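Researcher: Structure prediction, please.
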Amino acid sequence: MARVYVSTVLPHMIDQVWHRIRDFNAMPDWHPNILESRIEGDEPADRVGCVRNFVLSPDVRIRERLLALSDRDFSFSYAIIESPVPVENYVATLALRSVTMGKQTVAEWAAEFECDPNEQEHLTNLVREFVFEAGLGGLVNP
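Model: Predicted structure follows.
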């Protein structure tokens, strides 16, 4: 099983960061690699089980299901249900923790998935750089 983990300290209070990422459909607002997104079936974007359908490029569309969302823990988990990227059983969690001193937030994004062992290094680097690092970088500026 492949594992990817990225963390960073963001120069914003946890409530500000959570407000930006809590909406499961808001990735185009903060992730530089997401062109557009919609929640299928007109469901609320914070309803566990809703499906996000988003576009990375004109020919790359991914569907993900919201598995958990916790306002108390400032976290959500999701699974890829359809993707041109050759991964299976992909589950990820994006979680926030408040830095005790200062107006900062620790953001942690982690995923586990199965893939062809010959593709594992390439796919873990792709998720790390193109998804996690790029997305957390997009949260640095409000």
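Model: The chain has a mean pLDDT of 95.
Researcher: Thanks, that helps.
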